[in-house]
């Protein structure tokens, strides 16, 4: 099993849409490990608390590394991407969060369109280390990093890097963290892994839409599971399995995630469909990833002790 | 501080709608404790796994004890209901869960109306003790009881016992458990506390709509907070505070809960509004109560270490 | 067939919630006609364009006349309420519309909660006659009056007069106009008809939440249809039939309305279920009543030429 | 002004996703007319009522002609596409509608995921002429053709042909009919017009998801409006203007459409924002395009007499 590096220089231009139309920047074998230099969601252009997002941000957000081509991956397979580690990189203050006009969970947006005046723009630049994020003199937020956006390529569409859907994408789900493995569907030859948007911490829902964004060295190992056709992303931790749904409205995320989890329990753990439905009613867990992106994201999980 | 008993006999008829139109069954002073004999959500009529819900259930579900009149409570106040203990009562198998036709999270309902055939009806009768619920030979579900439905009276409306809203109601939120305190708005003189529908355990979302329902002895202490006008229910545990929103679609639950939590942080903990918004984005927690009732329920919380 | 008058004096106090807990103000026989003096949705307290809604409006909005008891009506029946005529009454400017803070279709509300500042309050007082509403020097809006809120009583709940649901209520659907008949379910003995909130005109969706409100003399004829169990309101015009759904989110209104219409076509017009589904796909019509009330309202209809 | 032909042969392969990644099949000057041979939404593979959609349909649906490159079109411009005529073509029965499993407005889908069994599959093959569609011996549905899917290219994304959004796409809005003009945003050089999916008739909402699909000769004239930046599609008829929103949930479609219409009234017709908001509340019209596609579609309009 080889270990590859995918530096910013190797990447030579990030992608802001995720699809089959770009050339791979790296080809790997199943089981290989890749160390990826990710940029923050704003590609580093918010450098000071005096920067106004509306002035410094362009149309293209959430830069993605990739695509990484996985040898042997074909439609109908799945990729198992294990997150080995995530480490902050770059000069301090390397963390950024901000309120962006007409974006976020408690404001009118281009979709939930209203006539109200937008909220003010605000930027926080933050020192981030593996010891945590210095929020202010009183508060240090523990360093609990995860990959905000990770996907395979859709078959023919190219989905904006801000949007989560069946291919993964901008799920903003804290469970995609070191120690866990995310399963993504392969829709085209080579699968095409894209990733970026690592967060140093994030609350459930990513309330105003911007977590503690930071550039990282992120190490993943990519395995190939032949002939495992999954419709939505799935995730496995030491002690639970999780299915992930991303659409609108939010109840449909929960429906998708729980239904997919039932199917997983039936297919791989021998459960009767109704038994799974009735047990999840009593012991299922729900994690809200985001309530701000073009699709919302919910993960539904069950502890392995019940499987 | 007196301790009262509210037995089934005292209750002398449960209520299936929550409003100002019934006479109190008990009058208490602020600070008093009440031991309540609650029935299960089906009032005990599902006695065997051969019972079909569609045949044994009538129009009236989710029987509520109360109303309990609290001396001195006036519109603009809040009640603080501390859950002291919940203990199962009645003969075994005292636990019930079931799949009810056209009700639940993964089926067409009277609201999400479709032409698909309904799911099958299924009943499980379960032995429940404080050691847990015997689900089957392999699985015992820990006893983690909570009050599924608790409310004050709306001002002029009478809300079905199945519906959660600003007055509390059928939130099905596991955080309403022993050790925690729920705050409810007072809309009429005496406040009128109604409660029932205790669950021996429940997963997030209460997936098919029926948790492990069981009759209980539930002990609460009711305090009065003068001149604390709250719009939605709030909850306090040893280590966090939570605001609770119940509407449809589900994203609006999250919006309500987080917005109310921000207002709470501003009013009572000295936070600046935007500071609270930005901090919750990084450390806020979301709990999905139900995804099945006429309104869905989400609680948004923050750990007290951040306050 | 008798004709009754229900004046403001007879009414002697309006209702702001619709349920079984009030005494009838009038008892009629099936087939009787009633002339009702309705108030506007603000009970006339907005008298000038200088009035601020937030200052002059109290908690109780949308005053309802009734309840009217219909002899012989029992649970499982339906009432057929034919709207005979609606005429403006009272001194000019008798028409009112206004922007109310945190209410309406293009603003954050208590349900779609946000942190944005509310929109400004604005009031228009308007001259309304049967020739139209004088909007300004250039625009006269045709007088197309209808009943904004009409309902029977729910069985045990009392639903706020602002909320539409299975019992009818605040549907704000322009099809409830003279010449048409609305069918409402009977849930309690006597049915209990409540009505009010007549509009001189209204666009689809009632965008900011307040149509051209005005006091009226509204004449209805109430017939009783024995043993016709309907779950949602239905409506009949000379040339079409319509089913009406009121919930959130809006797609569920459309689902309810179309599903109910299919059932109506099957039960009363001999349609095969799938034939009805496929035909409505090609010729069904949808009318958006409101996009602002606690539940939204959609009517789905089919022209009688297809029946 | 030239007239071009875009035959199936010229097209030489349809597109099932709409974006900037394909080469233009035709280059035109602003003001030119194009006669397009469109296929039906199933590319003609449903040939008999015995065909099962699940067996004959592949992954790629809704074939699109194009892209058509418009000289001089640049980001920030708009295209004005006037629909000159739509005529049915091909051998009878040239019309097709069908119920597709897990697709449609009254069934569980991959997004509104449920455990119910899917509805049956059913196909109708129909004779379509300009005199109408022969539905059965009793019913002929008038020929009211329109373009179901028409779009410009998004800037970097490639959106599935089944999805409507800011670029237009699968709006299924009957107002896109001969005599009317649709305005679409230009996001890339040349604009890239894609179109297909013409319907011989369709009810509001396109209830089960498949209108009367048919191959056509569709003639459009494409004009270029420099420096008119529009965010969502707009449409103009002889007697009204309309803004079009496509997202989920459905209320957000209505919000987008009405908000955009207000902005149009302000920018081009001299309206004050609040005046427009208040007037639309009284005279605005709403048309439901689809309630079945990945995004729903609503058009909000105002009659020109009010402008």
Question: How are the SSEs placed, and which strands pair?
Answer:
Four copies of one chain form a homotetramer.
Chain A lengths: L2 E4 L1 H4 L5 E2 L7 E3 L3 E7 L14 H4 L8 E6 L7 E11 L6 E5 L22 E5 L1 E2 L2 E3 L5 E2 L4 E6 L7 E2 L3 E2 L2 E2 L11 E5 L7 E7 L16 E10 L8 E3 L3 E8 L2 H20 L3 H11 L1 E6 L5 E8 L4
Parallel strand pairs in A: 1-4, 3-5
Antiparallel strand pairs in A: 2-13, 4-18, 5-17, 6-16, 6-18, 7-8, 9-10, 10-11, 12-15, 12-17, 14-15, 16-19, 19-20, 20-22, 21-22
Q: N-to-C terminal Cα separation of chain A, in Å? A: 31 Å
Major interchain interface with per-chain residue totals: A-B, 49 and 49 residues
Mean pLDDT of chain A: 98
Give the biggest sheet of chain A.
Answer: 9 strands, mixed
SSE string of chain A, helices as H and strands as E: EHEEEHEEEEEEEEEEEEEEEEHHEE
Q: Which structural category do the helix and sheet elements of chain A fall into? A: mainly beta
Question: Can you offer a commentary on this structure?
Answer:
Four copies of one chain form a homotetramer. The first copy, chain A, is built from four helices and 22 strands. Chain A has helices at residues 8-11, 53-56, 250-269, 273-283, and strands spanning 3-6, 17-18, 26-28, 32-38, 65-70, 78-88, 95-99, 122-126, 128-129, 132-134, 140-141, 146-151, 159-160, 164-165, 168-169, 181-185, 193-199, 216-225, 234-236, 240-247, 285-290, 296-303. In chain A, the strands form five sheets. Chain A has a nine-stranded mixed beta sheet. Chain A has a six-stranded mixed beta sheet with strand order 3-5-17-12-15-14, with no helix packed on it. In chain A, a hairpin with a 5-residue loop joins strand 21 (285-290) and strand 22. The longest helix of chain A has 20 residues, at 250-269. Chain A is globular, with a radius of gyration of 19 Å. Chains in contact: A-B, A-C, A-D, B-C, B-D, C-D. At the C-D interface, helix 3, helix 4 and strand 21 of C face helix 3, helix 4 and strand 21 of D.
């Amino acid at each position: 099993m080889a270990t590859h590096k995918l530096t910013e220089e190797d990447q030579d231009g990030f992608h802001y849409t995720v699809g089959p139309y770009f050339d791979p920047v790296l080809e790997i074998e199943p089981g290989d490990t890749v160390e990826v230099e990710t940029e923050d969601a704003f590609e580093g252009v918010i450098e000071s608390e005096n920067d106004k997002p509306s002035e410094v941000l362009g149309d293209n957000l959430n830069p993605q590394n990739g695509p990484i081509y996985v040898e042997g991956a074909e439609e109908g397979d799945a990729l198992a991407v294990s997150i080995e580690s995530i480490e902050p990189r770059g000069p301090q203050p390397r963390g950024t969060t901000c309120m962006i006009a007409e974006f976020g969970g408690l404001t009118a947006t281009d979709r939930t369109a209203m006539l109200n005046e937008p909220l003010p723009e605000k930027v926080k630049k933050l020192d981030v280390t593996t010891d945590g994020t210095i929020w202010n003199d009183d508060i240090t937020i523990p360093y609990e990093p995860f990959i905000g956006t990770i996907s395979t390529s859709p078959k023919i569409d190219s989905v904006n890097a801000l949007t989560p859907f069946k291919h993964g994408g901008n799920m903003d789900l804290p469970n995609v963290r070191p120690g866990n493995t995310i399963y993504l569907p392969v829709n085209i030859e080579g699968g095409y892994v894209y990733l970026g948007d690592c967060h140093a911490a994030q609350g459930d829902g990513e309330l105003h839409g911007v977590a503690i964004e930071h550039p990282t060295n992120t190490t993943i190992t990519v395995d190939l599971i032949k002939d495992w056709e999954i419709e939505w992303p799935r995730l496995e931790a030491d002690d639970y399995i999780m299915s992930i749904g991303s659409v609108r409205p939010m109840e449909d995320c929960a429906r998708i995630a729980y239904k997919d989890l039932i199917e997983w329990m039936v297919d791989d753990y021998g459960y009767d469909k109704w038994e799974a439905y009735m047990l999840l009613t009593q012991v299922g867990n729900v994690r809200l990833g985001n309530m701000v992106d073009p699709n919302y994201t919910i993960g539904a999980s069950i502890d392995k002790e019940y499987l």
